[in-house]
Design a protein that fits this description.
By secondary structure, the protein is α/β, with parallel strands linked by helices. It contains 17 helices and 15 strands.
Length: 538
Amino acid sequence: MKSTSERKVATKAIILSRVSSKEQEEGYSIAAQKHRLQEYCTRKGLEIIRVFEFCESSIIPNRIKFMEAINFARSQKEIIAIVTDKVDRLQRSHREYNMLDELISREKIELHFYTENCIIHKYSSSQDRMMWNVHVMMAQNYVDSMSDNIKRSFAHKLRCGECIGMAPIGYLNAPGPNEEGRRTIVVDPERAPLIKRLFEEYSTGSYSAREMLGKAKEWGLTNSRGKKGHLNSRQTYDILRNPFYYGVMRIEKTGKLYPHIYPPIITKELFDVCQEVYNARKGKSFKYAGKEFIFRGLIKCATTGYTAGTEMMTRISPKGRFFKWTHLRVWKPENPELRIRVREEEVIMQIEEVFKALVIPRELLEQITGYLKKLVETERDLHKKRLNELKVANTRIMNRISMLTDSFLDYDISKEEYEIKKQELSQKRSEITQEIELYSNGDDNFRERQAELIRLASGAYDAFREANITEKRQLLNFVFLSLKLRGKKLEYSLRPPFSEFINLAKIDEWPDAAEEQYRLISTVAPLAITDNSLAGST
C-alpha cells in the first residue's frame, strides 16, 4: 500500500450540502453544513473551487443535482476532494457505489466525510472501506425503515377501508380533512351518474370497450384531474375493470381486495355482469397458475445477457418411480446459438460455497456489533427529536386554527378569507399528522435491521440452507448484486458491505479502528442529534 506522501493528494475541493425536502431547506441545515465544511477545508488546506447546495432526495432514480456535482469533479484535471457533512448526505444506498469507486480508483476524486472523520481514496484500507459501506448500509436501513412505516400506515388505512391513492374518476378527493382530521373521498356529483351509465350500457354486451369510449365522449365524461379532457382507451378499460365502484379497493401489485368506506356508484351484480362481458369478448379466464422457483428472474446468461429460464421436469421410470427436478436454461459460451440445461442443485451448491466464504471472525463480529449498536442509538435519538418537532408544529397549527376561528367570529376577516386560510392550515396539519404516525413506529425497525445485517453476515450459509423458497430469494437479493451463469459456472458480484466481508483476510488493525470509531461516535453523536440534516430526510 502506498503511503500518504506517495499517493496523489487532493489540494482542491468541492463542498456538497444537501437536504431532502423543502421543509429542511427552509431551516438552517444547509447553512450549518456549509459552515462546518468550510472550516474543515481550511484546516485540511483544501482550496474550495465550488459549493453545491441543493434540495434533492438521495433515493430517487435520477439524481440530477448530485450528478451535476459528480460530473463537475470528473471534468477537472487534478484529483478533487468531495467534502460532505455525513455519508448519508452523499448517498443513502449502494446504487452509486460502483460509479464512485471507479472514480476513486482512477484518482479523479476522494471522499471526505466530516462527521465520520473518514477519507476514502484509492489506497484506503479494507477497514476504512468497510466502514464507508457500513454507514451506507445503515443509511439504507433508515430509508427501508421509513418505507416499512409507510407500508404499515397503508396497511392500517386498508384495514380501516380508507383509500391510499387518488380517487378514481367518479369520485373526488375532498379539499380538506374530515372531522377526524383525515382526508376523505366523496362522490363526484357530475361524473358519478355517467360512470354508472357507462357500466349499464356495457353490461348489455352490445358494445366493446372501445365503443364505450366514444359514448363517454358523447356524454361529456371527462377526467377529474389535470386538464380535465376526455378519457382515453386505457382509462375506459380501467374504469370497467375497477371494483372500487361497487365498494372494494384492489391493490394492483398483489391483486388483493379490501372493502372501502365510501359510497358505491354501482352494485356488485352490475360489475360482475360487465366482467363476464369483458372476458367473453377477450376469451380470457380467471384461472392463472404459476410456481415460484428460487432463481426465477434472478440469474442471467453471461453469454447472451438474457434472463435464464427456469422450468420443472418430471419423469416416470420403468419401475414406476416418479422423478422431479428443476433446471435453468442458458446458452453455451462457445456456441450462443445452442441452449444448455443446468440443474438447479448445481447452482445452489455454488451459491452455498459463496455463503461459506462469508465467515466473519468472532472478534471482528463483536466489534461490528458494538459499532452498529451505537449507530442505532444515534438514529433512534434523531427519530425522537424529529417526532418532538412534529408534535410542536402540530400544536402550533392547532393554535393558529383556533386564533383564525376567533378572528372570523369577531368579524376581523371575511368568510372567504377564513375558508382559504383554514383549508391551508388543515392541509398542513394533515400532512404533519401522517408524518407523526410514521415516526411513532420507527425505533423497533432499526433493531430488527441491525440484527438482520449481523445474522446474514455471520451465518448466511446456515440461513440459506434452512430458508424456504421465498426467504432464499430475499437472501439472494440482499447479498448479491448480480448473478450470471457462463455455461454451468456461476459468476457473481456481492453487494457492499458483503464484498468487503468476503475480502477481509485479517483483523490486525480492526481493534484500533473500532476504538477510534467509538471515540468519534461519543464526540459526534451530540452534534448529530442537534442537526436537522438527518432527521426526517428521505
